[in-house]
Amino acid sequence: MANPAECTIKVMCRFRPLNKSEVARGDSYIPKFQGEDCVLITGKPYYFDRVFQSNTTQEQFYNAVAQQIVKDVLDGYNGTIFAYGQTASGKTHTMEGVLHDTDMMGVIPRIVQDIFNYIYSMDENLEFHIKVSYFEIYLDKIRDLMDVSKTNLSVHEDKNRVPYVKGASERFVCSPEEVMDAIDEGKNNRSVAVTNMNEHSSRSHSIFQINIKQENAQTGQKLTGKLYLVDLAGSEKIGKTGAEGTVLDEAKMINKSLSALGIVISALAEGSNYIPYRDSKMTRILQDSLGGNCRTTMVICCSPSAFNEAETKSTLLFGQRAKTIKNSVTLNVELTAEQWKKKWEKEKEKNKTLKNTVDTLESELQRWRTGESVPEEEQFDKEKAKEEVQAVENVLNHDKMAATPALGGPPGVQLQGPGGGTSGAELSKLYKEMDDKDDEIDQQSQLLEKLNQQMQDQEELLASSHRDHDKLQTELNRLLSENEASKEEVKEVLQALEELAVNYDQKSQEVEDKAQEFEALSEELNQKSSSLASIDTELQKLKEMTNHQKKRVTEMMSSLLKDLAEIGSAMGTKEIKQQESTGVIDEEFTVARLYISKMKSEVKSTVRRSRQLEGAQAESDQRLAETEKELAACQLLTSQYEAKIRSLTESVQILEQKKRQLEESVDALNEELVKISAQEKVHATEKEKMQSANEVKDAVQKQIMSHREAHQKQISSLRDELDSKEKQITELQDLNQKISLEQERLRAEHEKLKAADQERNRKLQELTGIQDRREQAKQDLKGLEETVARELQTLHNLRRLFVQDLNTRVKRNADADSDDTGGSAMQKQKIAFLESNLEQLTRVHKQLVRDNADLRSEIPKMEKRLRATVERVKALELALKEAREVAGRDRKRYQQEVDRIKEAVRSKNMSRWRTAAQIAKPIRPGQQPGAPPANPGVVRPNSVQTPQPAGLRGGGGGGAPAQQDKSSYSYDC
Ligand code: ADP
Ligand code: MG
């Protein structure tokens, strides 16, 4: 490309191989290749700059097609590579290929690599600034693939009237890896944004743009090159790819840019004055590449399958059309001051030349006007002037100082119509207006988009906030219920604590009471034991006294008896002795009498008691006999009932059997009935057959009727019988039940009576024992009575003898001497004294006996009481021990319970505090975790995260921790 200011678009045609499905389908391979630039489809040749067969490798293709472009771009020209073709024709394969595969990578990664390789080999004084942009056009909207937030970018024109995508992200890169990263990122963004990537990629155009700016550090010369690498949307008609789902408008929009591209190319090919670049955003962006300041290569990708023949043909025609387009390429250079100066001088020179030409022309015109004829050799030489100007321009071109678009006029030569300056100005004005409108539309659509997005965002936000609200509500409800539950639990725990406390109080009270009681009882016991000891000593004393008294009495008695014996013995010998003995006998008599009377009364009472007991025994005997009789009667009744039950059961069984028999007979009768009815039927058929057998039939019928009646009667009677039997059975069952009930009652009564009988027997035995004892006592008493009677008799005899003797003596004495009266008086006195003495003694003895008896009777009582007291003490001690154990256990349990409750409360609080910490955290915006709080009232995350329940807090806890707790609770609520 030495100096081709004007160049056509290069069109390369590439056929891919048949794919698997096409091979499987057996599609034929339709292209036929002729040379390097011709392909025949069904005999028709299509010529391109180069045609690549299906076996062309990526590297071969790149070397042939794209390598030159890298050089051009780095030399300061603009370049574009398009990939055009139907879906699955190999556009992406050609442009991208397998990105990180050295063999399969397509044009873009190879260009990237080459650019850098080329730069590395270039002059050291050159400084490069490379930036890349990546965007796609879908539904005529430009979406930035490097920044997904930019979804609808607009196209503007720079000061040189070159369109560019306004606001597209530009990433500066300094290595091929960075470029590849950008491509990866863009592709990733592209696939993330859509649901069906294949469909999307076939309907959208992706444009990768590389801007290279270079500056020569020595000369200060700046060159810029712009490279567009375009993977176009599938060129097929929408209907074929199955876009039925899309609405018509959308389908139109999908194809809009592509059809606009087709129209632009057609217009350019036809050399039309008006090129509708503005019909779509894509044509606007690529305005420079299509008939502008750009070296453009179009790769038309084709399928070799016969199935896609139509599409392939249309693609090839499109390529042929594009081939005719001419671009006028200029170098994008920014002039240095020196260059500008030179350029100015040259221009001045050119100007001078032109001015000379004008002057020459004017003088010539003047001469013509004045009527003078100008000889041919003096006339203006157009060719010469042109040559002169060309010479000047050539000098300019030679210096590579072609004017930039800004200086050298607009690059789109086609836009400069033959209409000249005025129409051009109008056109540019109109374009400006259109640009403004475009801008406005863009702004509006962007606004709309933004608003839509905002609306969607808002809706989403609303929905999410609704969801959040719901979630929070449920959470709140849950927390509330939890709170309620924990409150309830706390209440319960408190209640339990209270109960425990009350229980504990009660128990301690009880323990105290028990202790007091124990003390009182021990005191009582002490008292009792002391009193018992005193009683014992008293008893001992009394016993001693009794013994003493007894001794004395026996002594006295023995002395009395001795006296009596002495008297008795003396009576026979001496009168005085007789007199003395009379007194002693009297005394003894009185004592004996007393004894006897006592004995008598005792005997009487014993007899009385015995009689009473006998009467009671007789009564109980009688009652026993009665009860036994009753029992016998009951047993009899029971056996009777049992027999009856047995007989009833038997009768029930018999009835059952009868019933069964009857049922069997009923069944038999039924069978017979069936048979008869069958016979009847047979007869009936026979009747039809034989009219003459009518009589027989009647007879049979009658017979049947009579049979039936008899059967029915029998059945009804049997049924009645059955009913009556059933009734009987139920009655008998009732009776049976009654009887069994009665029997049970009787049995219970019998048991009771038996028990009573046993009790009575026991009592009887007791009574017999008592009776025996009484008998014994009676006999003893009798013996005693007898001895007493004998003694009395002897005493009586003695007394009589004594009285007789005394009388005789008295008589004798009265006869003999009157002095003896004094002696008898003395004796009398003595006797009276002795008697009174005896009486006294008897009384004392009686009293003593009584006291003794009382005391004796007291002893068992006291012993009993003592025993009872000891038992009570023991029981109390036991109870106390138990109470102590129970109290200990209770205390232990209480302690455990308290510990457990404390633990539970603490864990509850822990969890609550933890929850509080989690809730509290987001409430404090801007506070660093662990940073000291601005004021002590605010919860510190640390303090919230490690809470200590009030009950478990150490002694160090003052007002501040309490405040913290409070605050954490305030979050909790
Ligand atoms: P498009 O981008 O035009 O829709 P693709 O580039 O995705 O089509 O190609 C479709 C399939 O055909 C891919 O699997 C690709 O690998 C394969 N393919 C396309 N061109 C070639 C080729 N020249 N050689 C081998 N395989 C190819
Ligand atoms: Mg593709």
UniProtKB/TrEMBL annotation:
<dbReference type="GO" id="GO:0030951">
    <property type="term" value="P:establishment or maintenance of microtubule cytoskeleton polarity"/>
</dbReference>
<dbReference type="GO" id="GO:0007097">
    <property type="term" value="P:nuclear migration"/>
</dbReference>
<dbReference type="GO" id="GO:1904115">
    <property type="term" value="C:axon cytoplasm"/>
</dbReference>
<keyword id="KW-0505">Motor protein</keyword>
<keyword id="KW-0963">Cytoplasm</keyword>
<dbReference type="GO" id="GO:0032991">
    <property type="term" value="C:protein-containing complex"/>
</dbReference>
<dbReference type="GO" id="GO:0008017">
    <property type="term" value="F:microtubule binding"/>
</dbReference>
<keyword id="KW-0547">Nucleotide-binding</keyword>
<dbReference type="GO" id="GO:0098957">
    <property type="term" value="P:anterograde axonal transport of mitochondrion"/>
</dbReference>
<dbReference type="InterPro" id="IPR059182">
    <property type="entry name" value="Khc_C"/>
</dbReference>
<protein>
    <recommendedName>
        <fullName>Kinesin-like protein</fullName>
    </recommendedName>
</protein>
<feature type="domain" description="Kinesin motor">
    <location>
        <begin position="8"/>
        <end position="325"/>
    </location>
</feature>
<dbReference type="GO" id="GO:0048489">
    <property type="term" value="P:synaptic vesicle transport"/>
</dbReference>
<feature type="region of interest" description="Disordered">
    <location>
        <begin position="455"/>
        <end position="476"/>
    </location>
</feature>
<dbReference type="GO" id="GO:0003777">
    <property type="term" value="F:microtubule motor activity"/>
</dbReference>
<keyword id="KW-0175">Coiled coil</keyword>
<feature type="coiled-coil region">
    <location>
        <begin position="638"/>
        <end position="679"/>
    </location>
</feature>
<keyword id="KW-0493">Microtubule</keyword>
<dbReference type="Pfam" id="PF00225">
    <property type="entry name" value="Kinesin"/>
</dbReference>
<dbReference type="GO" id="GO:0007292">
    <property type="term" value="P:female gamete generation"/>
</dbReference>
<feature type="coiled-coil region">
    <location>
        <begin position="337"/>
        <end position="371"/>
    </location>
</feature>
<dbReference type="GO" id="GO:0005524">
    <property type="term" value="F:ATP binding"/>
</dbReference>
<comment type="similarity">
    <text>Belongs to the TRAFAC class myosin-kinesin ATPase superfamily. Kinesin family.</text>
</comment>
<keyword id="KW-0067">ATP-binding</keyword>
<dbReference type="InterPro" id="IPR001752">
    <property type="entry name" value="Kinesin_motor_dom"/>
</dbReference>
<feature type="binding site">
    <location>
        <begin position="85"/>
        <end position="92"/>
    </location>
    <ligand>
        <name>ATP</name>
    </ligand>
</feature>
<dbReference type="InterPro" id="IPR027640">
    <property type="entry name" value="Kinesin-like_fam"/>
</dbReference>
<dbReference type="InterPro" id="IPR036961">
    <property type="entry name" value="Kinesin_motor_dom_sf"/>
</dbReference>
<feature type="region of interest" description="Disordered">
    <location>
        <begin position="912"/>
        <end position="973"/>
    </location>
</feature>
<feature type="compositionally biased region" description="Low complexity">
    <location>
        <begin position="936"/>
        <end position="951"/>
    </location>
</feature>
<dbReference type="GO" id="GO:0005874">
    <property type="term" value="C:microtubule"/>
</dbReference>
<dbReference type="InterPro" id="IPR027417">
    <property type="entry name" value="P-loop_NTPase"/>
</dbReference>
<feature type="coiled-coil region">
    <location>
        <begin position="708"/>
        <end position="904"/>
    </location>
</feature>
<keyword id="KW-0206">Cytoskeleton</keyword>
<dbReference type="InterPro" id="IPR019821">
    <property type="entry name" value="Kinesin_motor_CS"/>
</dbReference>
